[in-house]
């Protein structure tokens, strides 16, 4: 995963459309490696996030800025002093290098007009944010680099800025296509490495596309006509400036209207999931193990059930031996008898030489009864194991969407109540009960969303009224969504909004055209002994919706 030069080229153009001629309104530094510039122009205001974090170096407009510290760092105070009120005059990228220069027109300490430059070097572990004066000298940087850290160049206050060493590669936009083809074909390293060593500004995911059959001509067309694309497996996996086909059905490919929107989603989701998994790694592991165990248990029981399918054969063998008892003798290893159940065809029945014919018949009857009892019990065992597996899937879904320690604690308490884990209860400090998430449709209906299975049951079976409308994603784990209608007929607009919310707060949140069932609360039933969150219904309608973070956030009732 890398923000390559071609991706950065299109991102730079996109940011320039808004940022150039805009004024710096506010500056924040949420963490040591991140800067957020609030820009204001005639089109409104937007937040530009610049990160030099080794794992997530990037630059894009964001709708989800990180939380700011109580005390701003020194570098943030420096930028506020020099850049607050300054105007952005231009954004530059030199020859598809992963370096972006943002030029400002501001004032110096004496109030005289001067220019500044903020350099964002987006190069993995070598990423940095460097602040330059009008003469190109370094005022300061997020990461100071002296000779002990790099013998190539120093990044220190007062030193003239020197760009990172340039790569000796060919630019897909300006170089001759045939020259690029010839250089790749003349390499003996294979298409992947040859492309990586030949073409400037491409990341590994693009080189794999070339290795999998994408031609240089097609690649150039994609580079000239970009399509912001995210690759999603269980979590956001990678992104690119073009459509990606190498994963086939193993990943979901999602396209975005803008590069900033893509990066905002990608890193918001990635950081959110990493943060949750760090807080609940042990619980994730425990529930995953329980789910896998339930699935294996169901599969084993199904195999045992298949072994019971031939139980009638044992009964028939017993009947045939008893019917021909008069002509059978002890000590025979088998009996060849006419099967009157199958047109008197001869069938060979294995026999125990130490038993009499009558004892062999009883042995077959005993095996028949054993399989008959097992078949009845195995069906119940399989149903229970499948129900357990489904339940653990809903727990994992709720855990993946948990955003606070309180939500994780409630999920632990739920598992404890079901007898799957032990939780130490602090009787002196009773946990404050969580409330459901609240939304409001565009036409004013209040919508409640469960955070876990216990809350789903409470919402659906106790809080909601019979005339309220219930929503749930079809055939997948997800939250129960209640639209409070107060007896008024629900509108098509509200149905769509609720379907988007139900799809987003489900396992299908990364899919498109998600099927969401909805029905009146009075049609919802909970079977006796069912796991938390499990309900049944037979009267319903289905709405299809494509969930997005932006649309869901816009419906939140703050």
List keywords for this structure.
558 residues, alpha+beta, six-stranded antiparallel beta sheet
Determine the number of helices (DSSP H or I, runs of at least 4 residues).
13
Approximately what portion of the residues adopt beta-strand conformation? 15-25%
Widest sheet, order of strands: 15-16-18-17-19-20
Assembly status: single chain
Q: What is the mean predicted local confidence, pLDDT?
A: 89
Please outline the major beta sheet.
6 strands, antiparallel
Structure notes:
- There is one protein chain.
- The protein is of the alpha+beta class and 558 residues long.
- It is built from 13 helices and 20 strands.
- It has helices at residues 5-19, 74-83, 177-185, 190-198, 204-211, 216-224, 259-307, 311-323, 357-401, 405-417, 453-463, 492-504, 549-554; strands at 23-31, 34-41, 44-51, 58-62, 87-93, 99-107, 113-121, 128-132, 138-141, 229-232, 236-240, 252-255, 334-339, 345-350, 437-440, 446-449, 469-473, 481-484, 514-520, 541-545.
- Strands 15-16-18-17-19-20 form a six-stranded antiparallel beta sheet.
- A hairpin with a 2-residue loop joins β2 and β3.
- α3 (177-185) packs across α4 (190-198), α7 runs antiparallel to α9 and α8 runs antiparallel to α9.
- The radius of gyration is 33 Å and the shape is elongated.
Task: Give a nutshell description of this structure.
Helix content is 38%, strand content 21%.
């Amino acid at each position: 995963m890398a923000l390559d030069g071609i991706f950065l080229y299109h991102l730079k153009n996109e940011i320039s459309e808004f940022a150039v001629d805009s004024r710096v309104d506010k500056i924040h530094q949420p963490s040591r490696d991140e800067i957020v510039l609030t820009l204001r122009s005639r089109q409104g205001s937007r937040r530009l996030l610049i990160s030099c974090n080794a794992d997530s170096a990037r630059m894009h407009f964001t709708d989800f800025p990180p939380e700011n510290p109580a005390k701003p760092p020194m570098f943030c105070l420096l930028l506020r002093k020099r850049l607050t009120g300054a105007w952005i005059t231009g954004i530059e990228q030199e020859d598809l290098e992963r370096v972006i220069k943002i030029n400002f027109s501001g004032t110096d300490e004496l109030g005289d007009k001067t220019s500044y430059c903020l350099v964002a070097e987006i190069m993995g572990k070598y990423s940095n944010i460097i602040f330059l004066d009008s003469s190109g000298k370094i005022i300061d940087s997020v990461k100071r680099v002296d000779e002990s850290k790099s013998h190539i160049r120093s990044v220190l206050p007062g030193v003239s800025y020197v760009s990172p060493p340039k790569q000796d590669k060919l630019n897909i936009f300006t170089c001759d296509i045939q020259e690029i083809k010839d250089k790749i074909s003349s390499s003996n390293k294979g298409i992947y490495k040859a492309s990586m060593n030949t073409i400037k500004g491409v990341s590994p995911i693009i080189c794999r596309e070339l290795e999998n059959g994408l031609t240089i001509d097609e690649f150039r067309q994609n580079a000239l006509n970009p399509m912001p694309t995210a690759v999603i497996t269980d979590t956001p996996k990678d992104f690119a400036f073009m459509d990606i086909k190498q994963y086939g059905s193993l990943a979901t490919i999602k396209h975005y209207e803008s590069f900033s929107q893509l990066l905002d989603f990608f890193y918001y989701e990635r950081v959110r999931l990493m943060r949750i998994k760090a807080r609940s790694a042990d619980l994730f592991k425990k529930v995953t193990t329980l789910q896998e165990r339930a699935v294996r248990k169901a599969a084993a029981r199904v195999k045992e059930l298949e072994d019971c399918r031939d139980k009638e054969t044992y009964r028939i063998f017993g009947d045939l031996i008893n019917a021909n008892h008069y002509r059978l003798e002890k000590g025979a290893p088998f009996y060849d008898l006419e099967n009157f159940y199958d047109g008197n065809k001869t069938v060979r029945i294995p026999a125990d030489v130490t038993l009499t014919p009558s004892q062999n018949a009883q042995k077959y009857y005993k095996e028949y009864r054993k399989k008959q009892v097992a078949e009845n019990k195995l069906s119940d065992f399989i149903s229970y194991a499948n129900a357990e597996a489904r339940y653990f899937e809903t727990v994992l879904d709720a855990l993946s969407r948990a955003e606070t320690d309180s939500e994780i604690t409630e999920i632990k308490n739920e598992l404890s109540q079901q007898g799957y884990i032990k939780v130490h209860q602090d009787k002196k400090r009773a946990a404050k009960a969580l409330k459901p998430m609240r939304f409001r449709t565009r036409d004013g209906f209040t919508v409640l969303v469960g955070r876990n299975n216990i809350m789903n049951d409470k919402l659906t079976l106790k809080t909601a009224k019979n005339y309220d409308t219930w929503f749930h994603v079809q055939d997948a784990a997800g939250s129960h969504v209640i639209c409070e209608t107060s007896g008024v007929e629900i509108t098509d607009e509200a149905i769509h909004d609720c379907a988007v919310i139900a799809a987003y707060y489900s396992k299908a949140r990364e899919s498109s055209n998600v099927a969401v069932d909805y029905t009146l609360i009075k049609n919802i039933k909970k079977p006796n002994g069912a796991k938390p969150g499990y309900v049944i219904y037979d009267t319903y309608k289905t709405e299809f919706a494509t969930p997005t973070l932006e649309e869901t956030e816009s419906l939140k009732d703050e």
